[in-house]
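Possible race condition, two jobs.
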Amino acid sequence: MNSQIEKARAFRALHVPGTPLALANAWDAGSAAVIAASGAAAVATTSAGVAWSLGAGDGGRLTREAAVGAVQRICAVVGVPVTADIEDGYGEDADAVAVTVREVIAAGAVGVNIEDGDLRGPGPLRHSAEQAARIAAARKAADETGVPLFVNARIDTYLRGTGEASTRLGETVGRARAYLDAGADGIFVPGLIDLDAIAVLVAETAAPVNVMVWPGAPDVAALAGAGVARISLGSGVAQAAYGLARLAAGELAEAGTYGAVAGGVDYGEMNGLVNPAG
Protein backbone atom coordinates (compact mmCIF):
# COMPACT_ATOMS: atom_id res chain seq x y z
CA MET A 1 0.00 0.00 0.00
CA ASN A 2 1.57 3.24 -1.12
CA SER A 3 -1.03 5.96 -0.85
CA GLN A 4 -2.67 7.17 2.32
CA ILE A 5 -6.09 6.81 0.71
CA GLU A 6 -5.35 3.15 -0.07
CA LYS A 7 -4.30 2.60 3.53
CA ALA A 8 -7.46 4.31 4.80
CA ARG A 9 -9.67 2.11 2.65
CA ALA A 10 -7.79 -1.00 3.71
CA PHE A 11 -8.06 -0.04 7.38
CA ARG A 12 -11.80 0.55 7.04
CA ALA A 13 -12.23 -2.89 5.47
CA LEU A 14 -10.53 -4.56 8.46
CA HIS A 15 -13.51 -3.74 10.72
CA VAL A 16 -15.66 -6.84 10.33
CA PRO A 17 -18.11 -7.80 13.10
CA GLY A 18 -17.33 -11.34 14.19
CA THR A 19 -13.84 -11.24 12.65
CA PRO A 20 -12.24 -8.57 14.81
CA LEU A 21 -9.15 -6.54 14.01
CA ALA A 22 -6.75 -7.15 16.91
CA LEU A 23 -4.49 -4.25 17.80
CA ALA A 24 -1.46 -4.23 20.10
CA ASN A 25 -1.07 -0.50 20.70
CA ALA A 26 2.27 1.23 20.09
CA TRP A 27 3.69 4.27 21.87
CA ASP A 28 6.71 5.20 19.75
CA ALA A 29 8.37 4.39 16.43
CA GLY A 30 10.31 1.44 17.81
CA SER A 31 7.30 -0.29 19.36
CA ALA A 32 5.28 0.38 16.20
CA ALA A 33 8.00 -1.20 14.05
CA VAL A 34 8.08 -4.31 16.25
CA ILE A 35 4.29 -4.64 16.19
CA ALA A 36 4.11 -4.21 12.41
CA ALA A 37 6.90 -6.75 11.91
CA SER A 38 4.91 -9.29 13.94
CA GLY A 39 2.40 -9.40 11.10
CA ALA A 40 -0.12 -6.91 12.46
CA ALA A 41 -2.55 -5.63 9.83
CA ALA A 42 -2.49 -2.14 11.36
CA VAL A 43 -0.90 -0.16 14.17
CA ALA A 44 -2.83 1.82 16.77
CA THR A 45 -1.29 4.27 19.20
CA THR A 46 -2.01 4.52 22.92
CA SER A 47 -2.26 8.09 24.18
CA ALA A 48 -1.13 6.98 27.64
CA GLY A 49 1.96 5.24 26.30
CA VAL A 50 2.82 8.15 24.01
CA ALA A 51 2.44 10.62 26.88
CA TRP A 52 4.57 8.56 29.27
CA SER A 53 7.31 8.13 26.67
CA LEU A 54 7.44 11.91 26.26
CA GLY A 55 7.49 12.69 29.97
CA ALA A 56 3.83 13.67 30.36
CA GLY A 57 0.86 12.14 32.13
CA ASP A 58 -2.15 10.77 30.30
CA GLY A 59 -5.47 12.58 30.27
CA GLY A 60 -5.10 15.72 28.18
CA ARG A 61 -1.63 16.65 29.44
CA LEU A 62 0.13 16.06 26.13
CA THR A 63 0.32 18.92 23.64
CA ARG A 64 -1.08 18.58 20.14
CA GLU A 65 2.39 19.19 18.72
CA ALA A 66 3.90 16.35 20.75
CA ALA A 67 1.07 13.96 19.91
CA VAL A 68 1.20 14.70 16.19
CA GLY A 69 5.00 14.35 16.21
CA ALA A 70 4.69 10.86 17.66
CA VAL A 71 2.16 9.89 14.98
CA GLN A 72 4.45 11.20 12.26
CA ARG A 73 7.43 9.20 13.53
CA ILE A 74 5.34 6.04 13.76
CA CYS A 75 3.90 6.44 10.26
CA ALA A 76 7.42 6.95 8.91
CA VAL A 77 8.62 3.50 10.00
CA VAL A 78 5.64 1.24 9.21
CA GLY A 79 3.93 0.42 5.94
CA VAL A 80 0.61 -0.67 7.48
CA PRO A 81 -2.28 1.68 8.30
CA VAL A 82 -1.90 3.72 11.50
CA THR A 83 -4.75 4.92 13.69
CA ALA A 84 -4.04 7.58 16.32
CA ASP A 85 -5.49 7.96 19.79
CA ILE A 86 -6.02 11.73 19.99
CA GLU A 87 -7.71 11.75 23.41
CA ASP A 88 -10.38 14.49 23.33
CA GLY A 89 -8.93 16.07 20.19
CA TYR A 90 -6.43 18.30 22.02
CA GLY A 91 -8.61 21.38 22.10
CA GLU A 92 -11.27 23.28 23.98
CA ASP A 93 -13.79 23.33 21.15
CA ALA A 94 -14.85 21.61 17.93
CA ASP A 95 -12.71 23.89 15.77
CA ALA A 96 -9.61 22.82 17.70
CA VAL A 97 -10.53 19.16 17.18
CA ALA A 98 -10.72 19.83 13.43
CA VAL A 99 -7.21 21.30 13.50
CA THR A 100 -5.90 18.21 15.28
CA VAL A 101 -7.55 15.88 12.79
CA ARG A 102 -6.06 17.72 9.83
CA GLU A 103 -2.61 17.57 11.42
CA VAL A 104 -2.72 13.84 12.23
CA ILE A 105 -3.86 13.11 8.68
CA ALA A 106 -0.95 15.20 7.40
CA ALA A 107 1.29 13.09 9.67
CA GLY A 108 0.08 9.95 7.90
CA ALA A 109 -2.71 8.53 10.08
CA VAL A 110 -5.83 6.97 8.58
CA GLY A 111 -7.88 6.64 11.76
CA VAL A 112 -8.46 8.41 15.06
CA ASN A 113 -10.01 7.70 18.44
CA ILE A 114 -11.86 10.64 20.01
CA GLU A 115 -13.08 10.22 23.58
CA ASP A 116 -16.03 11.84 25.33
CA GLY A 117 -14.38 11.98 28.74
CA ASP A 118 -14.32 15.59 29.96
CA LEU A 119 -10.59 16.18 30.34
CA ARG A 120 -10.87 19.96 30.62
CA GLY A 121 -13.98 20.54 32.71
CA PRO A 122 -15.88 19.18 35.71
CA GLY A 123 -16.64 15.91 33.90
CA PRO A 124 -16.71 13.01 34.02
CA LEU A 125 -18.21 13.07 30.50
CA ARG A 126 -19.02 15.78 27.99
CA HIS A 127 -22.67 16.24 27.13
CA SER A 128 -23.46 13.97 24.19
CA ALA A 129 -24.54 16.91 22.00
CA GLU A 130 -21.24 18.71 22.62
CA GLN A 131 -19.29 15.56 21.83
CA ALA A 132 -21.35 14.97 18.69
CA ALA A 133 -20.37 18.46 17.51
CA ARG A 134 -16.71 17.64 18.06
CA ILE A 135 -17.07 14.42 16.08
CA ALA A 136 -18.89 16.24 13.29
CA ALA A 137 -16.02 18.72 13.11
CA ALA A 138 -13.54 15.85 12.89
CA ARG A 139 -15.57 14.23 10.13
CA LYS A 140 -15.80 17.44 8.12
CA ALA A 141 -12.09 18.18 8.49
CA ALA A 142 -11.17 14.66 7.38
CA ASP A 143 -13.52 14.69 4.40
CA GLU A 144 -12.04 17.97 3.23
CA THR A 145 -8.61 16.31 2.98
CA GLY A 146 -9.96 13.54 0.77
CA VAL A 147 -8.72 10.83 3.15
CA PRO A 148 -11.56 8.51 4.29
CA LEU A 149 -10.47 8.69 7.93
CA PHE A 150 -11.96 6.06 10.26
CA VAL A 151 -13.37 8.00 13.21
CA ASN A 152 -13.68 5.76 16.27
CA ALA A 153 -15.91 7.42 18.87
CA ARG A 154 -14.79 6.41 22.35
CA ILE A 155 -17.51 6.32 25.00
CA ASP A 156 -16.27 6.40 28.59
CA THR A 157 -19.46 5.44 30.42
CA TYR A 158 -17.99 2.12 31.59
CA LEU A 159 -14.40 3.23 32.01
CA ARG A 160 -15.47 6.05 34.33
CA GLY A 161 -18.43 4.21 35.85
CA THR A 162 -20.88 7.03 35.20
CA GLY A 163 -24.53 6.93 36.21
CA GLU A 164 -26.37 3.93 37.60
CA ALA A 165 -25.15 0.51 36.52
CA SER A 166 -28.69 -0.41 35.49
CA THR A 167 -28.89 2.46 32.98
CA ARG A 168 -25.29 2.51 31.78
CA LEU A 169 -25.84 0.33 28.73
CA GLY A 170 -28.82 2.43 27.63
CA GLU A 171 -26.79 5.63 27.97
CA THR A 172 -23.95 4.04 26.02
CA VAL A 173 -26.29 3.05 23.18
CA GLY A 174 -27.77 6.55 23.11
CA ARG A 175 -24.36 8.16 22.93
CA ALA A 176 -23.24 5.70 20.27
CA ARG A 177 -26.18 6.55 18.05
CA ALA A 178 -25.61 10.30 18.47
CA TYR A 179 -21.93 9.97 17.59
CA LEU A 180 -22.63 7.77 14.58
CA ASP A 181 -25.20 10.28 13.35
CA ALA A 182 -22.51 12.97 13.69
CA GLY A 183 -20.15 11.08 11.39
CA ALA A 184 -18.33 8.50 13.49
CA ASP A 185 -17.54 5.19 11.80
CA GLY A 186 -17.16 2.99 14.86
CA ILE A 187 -17.78 2.86 18.59
CA PHE A 188 -15.14 2.17 21.26
CA VAL A 189 -16.28 1.39 24.81
CA PRO A 190 -13.27 0.70 27.05
CA GLY A 191 -14.15 -0.97 30.32
CA LEU A 192 -17.01 -3.00 28.83
CA ILE A 193 -16.20 -6.73 28.71
CA ASP A 194 -19.60 -8.30 29.51
CA LEU A 195 -20.40 -10.39 26.45
CA ASP A 196 -24.18 -10.02 26.71
CA ALA A 197 -23.96 -6.23 27.00
CA ILE A 198 -21.52 -6.11 24.09
CA ALA A 199 -23.92 -8.14 21.95
CA VAL A 200 -26.71 -5.66 22.74
CA LEU A 201 -24.47 -2.73 21.82
CA VAL A 202 -23.55 -4.41 18.53
CA ALA A 203 -27.20 -5.07 17.70
CA GLU A 204 -28.48 -1.66 18.75
CA THR A 205 -25.86 0.42 16.93
CA ALA A 206 -25.25 -1.61 13.75
CA ALA A 207 -21.70 -0.25 13.62
CA PRO A 208 -18.22 -1.68 14.24
CA VAL A 209 -17.73 -2.02 18.00
CA ASN A 210 -14.27 -1.83 19.56
CA VAL A 211 -13.47 -3.11 23.05
CA MET A 212 -10.34 -2.90 25.16
CA VAL A 213 -8.90 -6.08 26.66
CA TRP A 214 -6.55 -7.03 29.46
CA PRO A 215 -5.62 -10.25 31.29
CA GLY A 216 -8.86 -11.82 32.48
CA ALA A 217 -11.05 -10.30 29.75
CA PRO A 218 -12.86 -12.65 27.32
CA ASP A 219 -10.58 -13.99 24.60
CA VAL A 220 -10.73 -13.00 20.95
CA ALA A 221 -12.94 -15.95 20.00
CA ALA A 222 -15.54 -15.06 22.64
CA LEU A 223 -15.56 -11.40 21.67
CA ALA A 224 -15.88 -12.36 18.02
CA GLY A 225 -18.92 -14.41 18.95
CA ALA A 226 -20.50 -11.30 20.47
CA GLY A 227 -20.01 -9.45 17.18
CA VAL A 228 -17.01 -7.30 18.09
CA ALA A 229 -15.18 -5.79 15.11
CA ARG A 230 -12.04 -4.47 16.81
CA ILE A 231 -10.04 -5.36 19.90
CA SER A 232 -7.23 -3.30 21.39
CA LEU A 233 -4.79 -3.69 24.26
CA GLY A 234 -4.77 0.04 25.04
CA SER A 235 -1.85 1.00 27.25
CA GLY A 236 -1.28 -2.63 28.25
CA VAL A 237 1.77 -3.33 26.10
CA ALA A 238 3.45 -0.09 27.19
CA GLN A 239 2.73 -0.90 30.83
CA ALA A 240 4.18 -4.38 30.36
CA ALA A 241 7.33 -2.91 28.79
CA TYR A 242 7.77 -0.51 31.69
CA GLY A 243 7.12 -3.39 34.06
CA LEU A 244 9.99 -5.29 32.43
CA ALA A 245 12.25 -2.25 32.82
CA ARG A 246 11.43 -2.14 36.53
CA LEU A 247 12.00 -5.89 36.88
CA ALA A 248 15.36 -5.72 35.09
CA ALA A 249 16.52 -2.74 37.13
CA GLY A 250 15.50 -4.41 40.37
CA GLU A 251 17.23 -7.67 39.47
CA LEU A 252 20.41 -5.83 38.54
CA ALA A 253 20.45 -3.80 41.74
CA GLU A 254 19.43 -6.54 44.14
CA ALA A 255 20.80 -9.77 42.69
CA GLY A 256 23.49 -8.55 40.34
CA THR A 257 22.07 -10.71 37.57
CA TYR A 258 20.49 -9.98 34.20
CA GLY A 259 17.99 -12.72 33.40
CA ALA A 260 15.06 -10.33 33.00
CA VAL A 261 16.42 -8.97 29.71
CA ALA A 262 16.67 -12.39 28.05
CA GLY A 263 14.40 -12.75 25.06
CA GLY A 264 14.66 -9.16 23.90
CA VAL A 265 14.59 -8.20 20.22
CA ASP A 266 18.00 -8.72 18.63
CA TYR A 267 20.05 -5.52 18.34
CA GLY A 268 20.62 -5.82 14.61
CA GLU A 269 17.00 -6.76 13.94
CA MET A 270 15.79 -3.74 15.93
CA ASN A 271 18.11 -1.44 14.01
CA GLY A 272 16.80 -2.82 10.75
CA LEU A 273 13.15 -2.40 11.77
CA VAL A 274 13.45 1.32 12.44
CA ASN A 275 16.03 2.08 9.75
CA PRO A 276 15.68 -0.46 6.94
CA ALA A 277 17.75 1.65 4.55
CA GLY A 278 20.62 1.96 6.97
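Job #2 (started ~2 s after job #1):
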Amino acid sequence: MRAQLREQVTTIIARIPSGRVTTYGRIAKMTEGATARSVGAVLRTLPAGHQLPWYRVVAAGGRLADHEGAVEQRQQLAAEGIMFDERGRIPSHYFWPD
Protein backbone atom coordinates (compact mmCIF):
# COMPACT_ATOMS: atom_id res chain seq x y z
CA MET A 1 0.00 0.00 0.00
CA ARG A 2 1.26 3.46 -0.85
CA ALA A 3 2.49 5.50 2.11
CA GLN A 4 0.03 8.29 1.27
CA LEU A 5 -2.92 5.89 1.34
CA ARG A 6 -1.71 4.32 4.59
CA GLU A 7 -1.50 7.81 6.10
CA GLN A 8 -5.07 8.57 4.98
CA VAL A 9 -6.32 5.39 6.66
CA THR A 10 -4.52 6.04 9.95
CA THR A 11 -5.66 9.68 9.98
CA ILE A 12 -9.28 8.61 9.58
CA ILE A 13 -8.98 5.98 12.32
CA ALA A 14 -7.49 8.57 14.67
CA ARG A 15 -10.56 10.78 14.11
CA ILE A 16 -13.18 8.18 15.11
CA PRO A 17 -14.79 9.68 18.24
CA SER A 18 -14.94 7.81 21.52
CA GLY A 19 -18.17 5.86 21.84
CA ARG A 20 -18.54 5.50 18.06
CA VAL A 21 -17.45 2.94 15.47
CA THR A 22 -17.03 2.75 11.73
CA THR A 23 -16.42 -0.05 9.24
CA TYR A 24 -13.45 -1.05 7.15
CA GLY A 25 -15.53 -0.22 4.07
CA ARG A 26 -16.53 3.24 5.26
CA ILE A 27 -12.90 4.09 5.94
CA ALA A 28 -11.97 2.82 2.47
CA LYS A 29 -14.59 5.09 0.88
CA MET A 30 -13.08 8.11 2.65
CA THR A 31 -9.69 7.50 1.03
CA GLU A 32 -8.30 7.86 -2.45
CA GLY A 33 -8.22 4.18 -3.37
CA ALA A 34 -8.12 1.94 -0.31
CA THR A 35 -10.29 -1.15 -0.07
CA ALA A 36 -11.86 -2.64 3.03
CA ARG A 37 -9.20 -5.38 2.91
CA SER A 38 -6.37 -2.88 2.67
CA VAL A 39 -7.77 -1.01 5.69
CA GLY A 40 -7.63 -4.32 7.57
CA ALA A 41 -4.04 -4.81 6.40
CA VAL A 42 -3.09 -1.41 7.81
CA LEU A 43 -4.59 -2.36 11.16
CA ARG A 44 -2.80 -5.72 11.20
CA THR A 45 0.55 -4.06 10.59
CA LEU A 46 0.38 -1.26 13.15
CA PRO A 47 3.52 -1.11 15.28
CA ALA A 48 3.46 -2.20 18.91
CA GLY A 49 2.60 0.62 21.26
CA HIS A 50 0.63 2.66 18.72
CA GLN A 51 -2.13 4.92 20.02
CA LEU A 52 -4.73 4.48 17.26
CA PRO A 53 -8.21 3.41 18.42
CA TRP A 54 -8.13 0.30 16.20
CA TYR A 55 -10.94 -1.26 18.22
CA ARG A 56 -13.42 1.30 16.82
CA VAL A 57 -13.20 -0.29 13.36
CA VAL A 58 -15.70 -3.11 12.88
CA ALA A 59 -16.94 -5.33 10.08
CA ALA A 60 -19.96 -4.51 7.94
CA GLY A 61 -23.26 -4.81 9.71
CA GLY A 62 -21.75 -3.93 13.08
CA ARG A 63 -20.03 -7.24 13.66
CA LEU A 64 -16.61 -7.65 15.19
CA ALA A 65 -14.20 -9.16 12.71
CA ASP A 66 -12.93 -12.63 13.55
CA HIS A 67 -9.39 -11.93 14.76
CA GLU A 68 -7.26 -12.61 17.82
CA GLY A 69 -8.02 -9.20 19.33
CA ALA A 70 -11.82 -9.56 19.19
CA VAL A 71 -12.24 -10.14 22.94
CA GLU A 72 -10.14 -7.07 23.76
CA GLN A 73 -12.00 -5.10 21.09
CA ARG A 74 -15.36 -5.92 22.63
CA GLN A 75 -14.08 -4.94 26.08
CA GLN A 76 -12.69 -1.63 24.80
CA LEU A 77 -15.95 -0.78 23.04
CA ALA A 78 -18.04 -1.69 26.10
CA ALA A 79 -15.79 0.54 28.22
CA GLU A 80 -16.72 3.42 25.89
CA GLY A 81 -20.43 2.70 26.36
CA ILE A 82 -21.05 0.84 23.12
CA MET A 83 -23.74 -1.78 23.53
CA PHE A 84 -24.27 -4.91 21.46
CA ASP A 85 -27.65 -6.26 20.43
CA GLU A 86 -28.84 -9.80 21.11
CA ARG A 87 -27.08 -11.01 17.92
CA GLY A 88 -23.76 -9.51 19.01
CA ARG A 89 -23.93 -6.59 16.59
CA ILE A 90 -23.46 -2.90 17.22
CA PRO A 91 -26.63 -0.87 16.53
CA SER A 92 -26.43 1.71 13.74
CA HIS A 93 -26.75 4.75 16.00
CA TYR A 94 -23.15 4.14 17.19
CA PHE A 95 -21.76 4.49 13.65
CA TRP A 96 -19.57 7.37 12.55
CA PRO A 97 -19.80 9.41 10.45
CA ASP A 98 -23.54 9.96 10.63
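The first strand starts at residue 22 and ends at 23.
Logs attached separately.
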